[in-house]
Every structure is written in structure tokens, then in C-alpha cells.
């Protein structure tokens, strides 16, 4: 089984000469890759010691890039630090409440309109 690394530990490796980052809940030590990165050093320094999943995916890296990544894998992010996704997100609850409110308001307005006639 691979090593589990707490988020607090990852956070301490946030410098150009000691640079870890998290992608898809896996921890990578990319210190040695920094100068080779075709996307520049700054992009990696920006997410040093943090979760770079979104930044990494947004660029649409090639499968070759994912292959390179494997070389720098040092362990999995500790299970306790992996954000849990509930069955429904807050956004979904907000949308459902908004839709319900709109629906009820509409019924109210229609019924009042009908009552007048
Ligand atoms: C440590 C993990 C990473 C590896 C192994 C990696 C590897 C690569 C590779 C091989 C390329 C060349 C194009 C390709 O094959 O897709 C590339 C390009 C690029 N990467 Fe990364 N990358 C990593 C993380 C990131 C992060 C976190 C960012 C943040 C935004 C980033 C931004 C970019 C950009 C902007 C390019 C495009 C460069 C260009 O086309 O001019 N990369 N990366």
C-alpha cells in the first residue's frame, strides 16, 4: 500500500526548491521537474503545497503529461483530508429551493389573477 500523506505535510513543501502538489488526491514531488515544465515554472509555483487538480485539468494536459506525473508520485493524500462529496451538493439544494420558490410564487400569482375574474 502506498504511503498516506496528510494535507498539513503537503502544505509545508510549497517552495520552488521543495515543491509538492496534489492532483486527483495523489501527492507529487515535482521539485526536479520544475525547470523542465513546458508550461513554465510559475504555473507550478502557483499551486505549490496545494491541490493543483483544477489547474492541471483546465490546461488539458496530454496523456504524455500524465505519464510524466507518475514518475514524481510519492503517496496518496490522507483519507481524512480528501473532501467528501455528499449525495447532493449545496448548489443542487440551492437550485431546488429556488425552483420551488419560483413555482409557488407563480401559482400564487395565477390564482390571484383567476380570483379577480
Ligand atoms: C506537476 C504536474 C504537471 C506535469 C507533469 C505537467 C506537464 C506538462 C507537459 C508535458 C506539458 C506539454 C504539453 C502536454 O503534453 O500536455 C505541459 C504544458 C503546460 N502546462 Fe503542465 N504539467 C503539470 C502541471 C501543471 C499545472 C499545475 C499547471 C497550472 C496551470 C500547468 C500548466 C501548463 C500550461 C499552461 C502548459 C501549456 C504550455 C504551452 O502549450 O505553451 N501544468 N505541462
TrEMBL record:
GO cellular component terms given for this protein: endoplasmic reticulum membrane
Q: Which SMART domains match?
A: Cyt-b5 (SM01117)
Please give, as recorded in its UniProt entry, the membrane topology of this protein: Single-pass membrane protein
Q: Which organism is it from?
A: Drosophila ananassae (Fruit fly)
Q: Which Pfam families match?
A: Cyt-b5
Which gene carries the instructions for this protein? Dana\GF20301
Domain Cytochrome b5 heme-binding, by residue range, is 2-78
- The residue ranges crossing the membrane are 93-110
Q: Which Gene3D superfamilies match?
A: Cytochrome b5-like heme/steroid binding domain
- Where does the protein end up? Endoplasmic reticulum membrane; Microsome membrane
Record keywords, A-Z: Electron transport, Endoplasmic reticulum, Heme, Iron, Membrane, Metal-binding, Microsome, Transmembrane, Transmembrane helix, Transport
Q: What is its main location?
A: endoplasmic reticulum
The UniProt family comment states:
Belongs to the cytochrome b5 family.
Q: What name does this protein carry?
A: Cytochrome b5
Q: Name one GO molecular function term.
A: heme binding
Q: Which domain of life is it from?
A: Eukaryota
Amino acid at each position: 500500500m502506498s504511503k498516506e500523506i496528510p494535507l498539513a505535510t503537503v502544505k509545508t513543501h510549497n517552495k520552488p526548491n521543495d515543491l509538492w502538489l496534489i492532483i486527483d488526491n495523489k501527492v507529487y514531488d515535482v521539485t526536479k521537474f520544475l525547470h523542465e515544465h513546458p508550461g513554465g515554472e510559475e504555473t507550478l509555483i502557483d499551486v505549490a503545497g496545494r491541490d493543483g487538480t483544477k489547474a492541471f485539468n483546465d490546461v488539458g494536459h496530454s496523456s504524455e503529461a500524465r505519464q510524466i506525473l507518475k514518475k514524481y508520485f510519492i503517496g496518496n493524500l490522507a483519507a481524512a483530508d480528501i473532501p467528501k462529496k455528499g449525495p447532493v451538493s449545496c448548489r443542487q439544494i440551492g437550485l431546488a429551493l429556488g425552483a420551488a420558490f419560483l413555482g409557488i410564487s407563480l401559482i400564487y400569482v395565477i390564482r390571484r389573477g383567476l380570483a379577480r375574474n
